[in-house]
Amino acid sequence: MTDQGTWHEAAALSALSEGEPHGIEIGRHHIALYRVGNEFYATSNICTHAEALLSDGMLDGCEIECPLHMGRFDIRTGEALTSPVEIDIQTYPVRVTGDRLEVCLPA
Ligand code: FES
């Protein structure tokens, strides 16, 4: 437990490829994991516009493009960047432990 939530094992680092979003579910949370160089990020996997899976979208640098209507979010901050998305997505803290990525989720 932390003030922010609870750490959960999310994926093996070897399963996370540069430029290929990776969708997982932990309990009720639908999470998209991203690798950009040696940095890792986690966001909600559900687009705030019409609930498409962002893990089916295209990662361009630190921007994920939704596969349904091409709205874009910044995966570092969750900020909604381009129409038609207007509502930011949730982001989650991540950490590397050994060869695994962990994500911190609210309880
Ligand atoms: Fe993602 Fe419409 S569902 S932009």
UniProtKB/TrEMBL annotation:
List the SUPFAM superfamilies. ISP domain (SSF50022)
Q: Does the keyword Iron-sulfur apply?
A: yes
Iron-sulfur keyword on record: yes
| One Pfam short name | Rieske
Which keywords does UniProt give here?
Answer: 2Fe-2S, Iron, Iron-sulfur, Metal-binding
Q: Which organism is it from?
A: Bradyrhizobium uaiense
Q: Which cofactor does it need?
A: [2Fe-2S] cluster
Q: What is this protein called?
A: Non-heme iron oxygenase ferredoxin subunit
InterPro entries given in the database record = Rieske_2Fe-2S (IPR017941), Rieske_2Fe-2S_sf (IPR036922)
- Which terms does the record give in the GO molecular function aspect? 2 iron, 2 sulfur cluster binding; metal ion binding
**Similarity comment text for this entry:** Belongs to the bacterial ring-hydroxylating dioxygenase ferredoxin component family.
Describe the location of the Rieske domain by residue ranges: 8-103
